[in-house]
Design goal:
alpha+beta, 25% strand, 4 helices, single chain, 129 residues
Length: 129
């Protein structure tokens, strides 16, 4: 297993740390769990279900602890909120464009709808003036 001090961060993470005035600390998180091993020597007894041994296993996962100033954390949170707003507005724009294409096909296939659409645009233009 690699010692936490020997972990190398990819260049994007190093750039993130520099950009947000952050420091990284390395550690492990340990998970302990039992792995049962059943002994089936008592075939005709209820004791066969209760008679087992267990081995304790430890799994270590490398962790990186990031320390950064409060104002930088607030900046990251604001950036995330802005990104969510951008995604929402992008979805709305995509849905609107799809609806416009559907409406255009309806106008092209139905002359009465096309004529009504042209009158609507003319009235709209007059109302703007």
């Amino acid at each position: 297993m690699v010692h936490p001090k020997e972990l190398s961060l990819n260049p994007d993470v190093e750039q993130f740390l520099a950009q947000y005035e952050a420091r990284a600390g390395y550690s492990y998180r340990e998970y302990y769990y039992r792995r049962p091993q059943y002994n089936y020597t008592y075939h005709h007894s209820i004791d066969a279900l209760n008679h087992h041994t267990a081995t304790m296993e430890i799994e270590r996962e490398p962790y990186v602890e990031v320390l950064l100033p409060k104002h930088q954390l607030e900046r990251i949170v604001q950036y995330q909120e802005d990104a969510k707003d951008y995604v929402r507005s992008s979805r709305h724009a995509i849905e609107s464009a799809a609806q416009q294409r559907i409406d255009e096909r309806v106008r092209e296939s139905n002359p009465a709808v096309q004529k009504a659409w042209m009158k609507y645009l003319m009235l709209l233009e007059l109302a703007r003036k």
